[in-house]
Structures are given as structure tokens and as C-alpha cells.
């Protein structure tokens, strides 16, 4: 990566002034948010008081971290248009499902976290397994965002990796520990606009340099990968399957169903933003509002990666030979280096910093909630005053940041960080989704099935990864992640059904509000009066409009 080369970006005083101004705003928001924090609920869930437009933008901004900016631009440079599936198949449908179907259960049950929902549905064993696995996943993913944040600091100032990591971590820690979730969410709203302002000019200038849309089409067709990289389907290079049918099945089932629904519907990083909303309707609208910008983000993330692969000499060399001083993760930085003038470069760098900070802050704020409520309060130190857990939450944030400094070095070993992230999602999210979806719609599923399905599902995903790494399975691209996710889902379902049939379920009276068939319909309906009145605030209608748009995009670019 650019970090490894120790090469400085050609920033000047204007760029540094813009960056300094951005940091003033970020830290100022953290300080102001601290004044509103008086209880642990304020710190961890913003007192459930935020409007839908704020939580909706924060919902999507929390995901605009390393996965979106560096990972997706790297995927765009390597695979081209098939990367669109991560948004149009692998995100939006699941976000709509979360809003319409699952948020009424989460918000209506008044749980403080996804693992707490597992506690109520399945009991302590499943609760502890989910809490520990989620905590591990978050510090690993936080390390990705921190590593990339440090790479920008290194590229600007030339500081060593460890110094850059500590400085970057200190900035994110300062506002997250001060203001809790509110500081993270309001910064995420600011960061959303900064990110768009940073990446849109890069796409426009890149298209101008490459000869417009037709110029990009011609150059991609003539380059490594060829014309296949200009259509989203069947995406054989991305999935690693040479057969078109198997590739499409892998995308729809592995990415579009298991990985996508597993991530968006059970990942507390995202769900936490919706839980901070002020009403059931606002909670449902949060992921649906986020779906609208989500479907258009590929045009300012993936397209620059595709342009870099045919325009930037170092990237063209790497794509053709697999050798060179840079790799796919450098696509965005190299585009900034070569195409943006000073001033605009400062805005672009602020956008990158914003994306990595938003991602890391989201990881930290969800980690401190789960660790404090679901591990520390539940199993280690119980029955303390609320002020104790508020203070503990801040110390947990500090500890998680220090661990993320260590996990950042793991992320540094991957040429395409999206490969690493998809592996993590197949380990942690795919089996959790299987447990959730079965337990939510099948009242017979038992507490023993809840934890055993998770354990065996995760183990099967790890087994697929090991076989792929050792050459037992030949799965290039991100095929190993798709197969691992599918295996985790199927194994989890099979084990859960088998264990459920052999063990005793909970009484139906204990499952009200937790299982679809046992929950009164009226308790799942959002309000349509007061602040929730108006057709444009109806979750079902908004989800329908988003679904029509996403189908149209798949047809147009398929």
C-alpha cells in the first residue's frame, strides 16, 4: 500500500487548513454531545430520542468506512461492475427487510442490543456466544478502519505506522468516549456529507480524464479482465465460479441472502442507530431512508476504482502482472494523488478520514454497548448503580481502541481488504442470521438450538476458509467467503432443527414479542399520527419505492 512506500501526498497549507477545520468540528460535536449524557442509556443509545432523518443518515454513514471506500474501490479496480452487487443485491433488499420486518421486534421489545434479544429468545448460552463473537468481530473490523485512517496520516506526514495508528486512534477515541452514541451519530451525519463532497469530484474528474463514459468502456474492454467487467451479471471473476449459473446462485444466495441479510439485519453496529430513534416508525424508517443513498454510492466509490485500473499506470501494471509497489487498496489514494488539485485534495482527504473515523466510531460505540451491557453487567459485575456502567462504558471504549491498534496490523497483510472483511462476515454474521430468522419464525426452536447452531455454523465457515487457504478447495476471488457463508447458514439451520426436535422449547407465553406468529399484529404497527403522520413517513411505502428503484438499477446495469 501507499503506507508501505512512505510516500507523501502533495498537500499544501490550504489542504491542511481544511483538515484542521474538519477536526475542530468533529471534536466540538463530541464535547457538545457530552453535555447531554447523564445516564448509560444516553451514552449507549442516545436516550432513544433522535429523529429518523438523523439516524437514517447515520445508519448509512456508519457503513461508509473501510468496506465502502477502500474495499469497494479496490473491488471496482479488480472486478469492475460486478462489485455493484454488494449494494444492489448485497445491501438494499436486506436493509428494507430490516426496516419493515425486524425493527418492530427489536424496537418493540425495548432491548438495548442484538445480543439482549438473543437472551430473551434463547437464554444465557446463546446470549454469551453472540456477545463474545460480536465483540471479537468489532475489534477486528475497527482495526481495518484504524489501519486505513493511519495510512492517510502516514501519507500526509510520513510518520511511522505505529505513531500514525496511535494518533488516529486518539482522535476517534476522544469524541466517542466523550459523547457516546450521540457524538458518533451526529459526527456520522457530518461525515456523510463530507464523504460525498470528497468522492463526487473524484468521479467527475476521473471520467473527464478517461474520455467520459464511452472512454471508460473502451479502456476497460481492452484491458485486463475485458468487457466482462462492464456488466454486473454473472460476475464469475468476483465469485470465483467459472459456471455462469453457479456464479449467479452464489451472488443471490451467498451474497444477496446469507451475507447481506446476516450483516444488515443482525449487526448491532447498524441496528444500534435505528434503536436510538424516538419512535417505532422512526426506527423502521431509519434503514429505509439509508437505502436511498446506499443504492447510488457505487457511482462515487466503484467507478473511481474502475477508472484507476485503466488510468493510473501503477494500478494498470498491478492488475496486469500482480506485481508493483502498490495494490488494489491504493486505488482511491492514487486517484487523489494524480487528479485532484490542492484545496479539492484537502476536501477529499477529509472525506477519507471521515469515512474511516465513521466506521471505527461505529465499531467502538456498538462494542462498548455490547461489552458493558451483555458481558460485564450480565456476567461479571451485576447490580451496580447506573453511573457505574456509564463510567465503565467509557473505559471499555478506551480498551477497545487499544485492541484495535493491534488488530490493525492484521488488516495490513491483505492486498484487497474486502477479501478479509467478507471472511469475517461469513464467520460471524451468516450463522447469526440463520439463528435469528429460524427463531423469529419457528416457535419450536429451543434455547439449546440457539447456541449450538451458532457454534457449529461458525465452525463450518472457518473450516471452508481453512480448506480454501490450504488448497483443498479452489475458490479464487471472494468465492471462499460466499461458500463459507452458505455453509454456515445451512449447517446452522440443520443443527438448530435437529437440536430443537431433541430438546424442550420455551412456553409460548414467554415468546410474545419475540416470535412472529405469537406477537399481536397491532404491537408491530408503527404510529401514523403526530410526528409520524404523512404518506412520506410510511415505512412500507418508502420500502416499496426503494425496491422498485433497485430492480430498475439491476436491469439497466445488468
From TrEMBL:
Entry's transmembrane regions: 16-33, 53-74, 86-107, 128-153, 159-178, 190-208, 245-266, 287-312, 344-371, 392-414, 420-442, 449-468, 480-502, 540-557
Protein family per UniProt: Belongs to the sodium:solute symporter (SSF) (TC 2.A.21) family.
Swiss-Prot/TrEMBL keywords: Membrane, Transmembrane, Transmembrane helix
Alphabetical list of PROSITE patterns matching this protein: NA_SOLUT_SYMP_1, NA_SOLUT_SYMP_3
Pfam family, one: SSF
Gene3D superfamilies given in the database record: Sodium/glucose cotransporter
Origin: domain of life: Bacteria
Span of the signal peptide: none
Keyword Transmembrane appears in the UniProt entry: yes
Membrane disposition: Multi-pass membrane protein
Coiled-coil region list: none
Protein name, entry field: Sodium:solute symporter family protein
Transport found in the keyword field: no
Compartment(s) where it occurs, according to its Swiss-Prot or TrEMBL record: Membrane
Main subcellular location of this protein, as a coarse class: membrane
Amino acid at each position: 500500500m501507499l503506507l508501505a512506500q512512505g510516500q507523501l501526498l502533495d498537500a499544501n497549507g490550504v489542504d491542511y487548513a481544511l483538515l484542521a477545520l474538519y477536526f475542530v468540528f468533529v471534536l466540538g460535536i463530541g464535547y457538545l454531545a457530552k453535555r447531554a449524557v447523564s445516564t448509560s442509556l444516553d451514552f449507549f443509545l442516545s436516550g432513544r430520542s433522535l429523529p429518523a432523518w438523523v439516524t437514517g443518515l447515520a445508519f448509512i454513514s456508519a457503513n461508509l468506512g473501510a468496506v465502502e471506500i477502500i474495499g469497494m474501490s479496490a473491488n471496482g479496480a479488480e472486478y469492475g461492475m460486478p462489485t455493484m452487487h454488494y449494494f444492489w443485491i448485497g445491501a438494499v433488499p436486506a436493509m428494507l427487510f430490516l426496516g419493515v420486518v425486524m425493527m418492530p421486534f427489536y424496537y418493540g421489545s425495548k432491548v438495548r442490543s442484538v445480543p439482549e434479544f438473543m437472551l430473551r429468545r434463547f437464554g444465557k448460552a446463546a446470549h454469551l456466544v453472540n456477545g463474545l463473537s460480536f465483540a471479537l468481530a468489532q475489534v477486528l473490523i475497527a482495526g481495518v478502519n484504524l489501519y486505513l485512517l493511519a495510512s492517510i496520516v502516514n501519507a500526509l506526514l510520513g510518520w511511522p505506522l505505529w505513531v500514525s495508528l496511535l494518533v488516529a486512534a486518539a482522535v476517534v477515541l476522544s469524541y466517542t468516549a466523550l459523547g457516546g452514541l450521540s457524538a458518533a451519530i451526529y459526527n456520522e451525519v457530518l461525515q456523510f456529507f463530507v464523504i460525498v463532497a470528497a468522492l463526487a469530484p473524484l468521479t467527475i474528474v476521473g471520467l473527464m480524464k478517461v474520455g467520459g463514459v464511452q472512454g471508460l468502456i473502451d479502456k476497460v474492454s481492452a484491458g485486463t479482465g475485458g468487457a466482462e467487467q462492464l456488466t454486473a451479471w454473472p460476475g464469475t471473476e468476483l465469485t470465483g465460479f467459472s459456471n455462469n449459473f453457479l456464479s449467479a446462485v452464489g451472488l443471490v444466495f451467498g451474497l444477496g441472502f446469507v451475507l447481506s441479510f446476516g450483516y444488515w439485519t443482525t449487526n448491532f453496529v447498524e441496528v444500534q442507530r435505528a434503536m436510538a430513534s424516538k419512535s417505532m416508525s422512526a426506527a423502521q424508517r431509519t434503514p429505509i431512508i439509508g437505502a436511498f443513498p446506499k443504492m447510488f454510492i457505487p457511482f462515487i466509490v466503484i467507478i473511481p476504482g474502475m477508472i484507476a485500473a485503466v488510468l493510473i499506470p501503477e494500478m494498470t501494471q498491478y492488475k496486469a502482472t500482480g506485481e508493483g509497489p502498490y495494490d488494489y487498496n491504493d486505488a482511491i489514494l492514487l486517484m487523489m494523488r494524480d487528479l485532484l488539485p490542492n484545496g479539492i485534495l484537502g476536501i477529499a482527504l477529509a472525506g477519507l478520514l471521515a469515512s474511516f473515523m465513521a466506521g471505527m466510531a461505529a465499531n467502538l460505540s456498538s462494542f462498548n454497548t455490547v461489552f458493558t451491557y451483555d458481558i460485564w453487567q450480565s456476567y461479571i459485575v451485576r447490580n451496580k448503580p447506573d453511573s457505574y456502567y456509564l463510567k465503565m462504558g467509557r473505559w471499555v471504549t478506551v480498551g477497545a481502541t487499544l485492541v484495535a491498534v493491534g488488530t490493525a496490523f492484521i488488516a495490513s497483510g491483505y492486498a484487497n481488504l474486502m477479501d478479509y472483511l467478507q471472511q469475517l462476515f461469513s464467520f460471524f454474521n451468516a450463522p447469526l442470521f440463520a439463528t435469528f430468522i429460524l427463531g423469529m419464525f419457528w416457535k419450536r426452536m429451543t434455547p439449546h438450538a440457539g447456541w449450538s447452531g451458532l457454534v457449529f455454523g461458525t465452525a463450518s465457515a472457518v473450516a471452508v476458509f481453512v480448506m480454501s487457504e490450504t488448497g483443498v478447495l479452489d475458490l479464487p476471488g471472494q468465492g471462499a467467503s460466499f461458500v463459507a457463508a452458505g455453509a454456515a447458514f445451512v449447517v446452522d439451520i440443520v443443527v438448530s432443527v435437529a437440536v430443537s426436535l431433541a430438546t424442550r422449547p420455551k412456553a409460548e407465553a414467554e415468546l410474545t414479542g419475540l416470535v412472529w406468529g405469537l406477537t399481536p399484529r397491532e404491537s408491530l404497527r408503527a404510529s401514523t399520527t403526530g410526528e409520524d403522520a404523512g404518506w412520506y413517513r410510511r415505512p412500507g411505502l418508502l420500502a416499496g419505492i426503494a425496491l422498485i428503484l433497485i430492480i430498475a438499477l439491476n436491469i439497466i446495469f445488468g
